[in-house]
Amino acid sequence: MAGGGDLFRALLRAANALLQQRRYHAALAVIKGFRNGAVYGAKIRAPHALVMTFLFKSGSLREKLKSIAQATYAHSRNLAYFVFTYKGLLAVQSQLQGKKVPFHSFLAACIGGWLVFGDNNPINSQIVMYLLSRILFALSRLAVEKGYIPQPKQDPFPLVAALVWGTVLWLFEYHRGTLQPSLQSSMTYLYEDSELWHDLSDFLIYNKRTDSK
Fold first, then answer.
1. Residue 91 is assigned to a structural domain of this protein
2. Residue 213 resides in a domain
3. Are 67 and 48 in contact (CB under 8 A)?
4. Which residues of the chain have pLDDT under 70?
5. DSSP class of residue 13?
6. pLDDT tens-digit profile of 52-70?
7. What's the number of CA atoms in the CB half-sphere (13 Å) around residue 57?
8. Is 144 part of any domain?
9. 106 assigned to some structural domain
10. Could you report the per-residue pLDDT of 2-34, keeping only the tens digit for each?
11. What is the pTM of this model?
12. What is the extent of the structural domain holding 26?
């Protein structure tokens, strides 16, 4: 037993010494990026899938748990693959050119996005749309910072909020099929199911009755 403990401690010291080597930093960063992508993807997707599945999906408990596990795995895997690809391509470009330049980040992310998130499925679609909304805000702020557009005299957010909500409800009412399925489900729950009830039970306690009354 003592010999086994000594061997483990020796391996641990060797691993820690390897992690301190600067010449391996780029390769090790790619590996840790894969790890962080997998963990973060699981942390983000698992609670979201849990809530959305039990709110809107029918089926047995086993089917629901399977759906949650599949969505969590897909998000975790894709994010891990993307971070691995992105950081790997950054390291290769930096090594080839001798330094890191801003275009490296754009090119590496474009390639990673094409390879990992290019498949048009519900998970990838949701992630891309999440990012799209945020980069539109970021690019607007950057345009102001660079002087490409004038600094607004008043906060434009109220106008943005009005246009966003006006547009999404118009689409839901008249062009529903253009919206993502999970958004359709959320809006159906909020704006259509609230129009239907039979008695106090499905007016205040439940959304819909499950009996045959």
1. yes
2. no
3. no
4. 1-3, 210-213
5. H
6. 888 778 888 889 999 999 9
7. 18
8. no
9. yes
10. 567 788 888 888 778 878 888 878 888 888 999
11. 0.78
12. 8-118
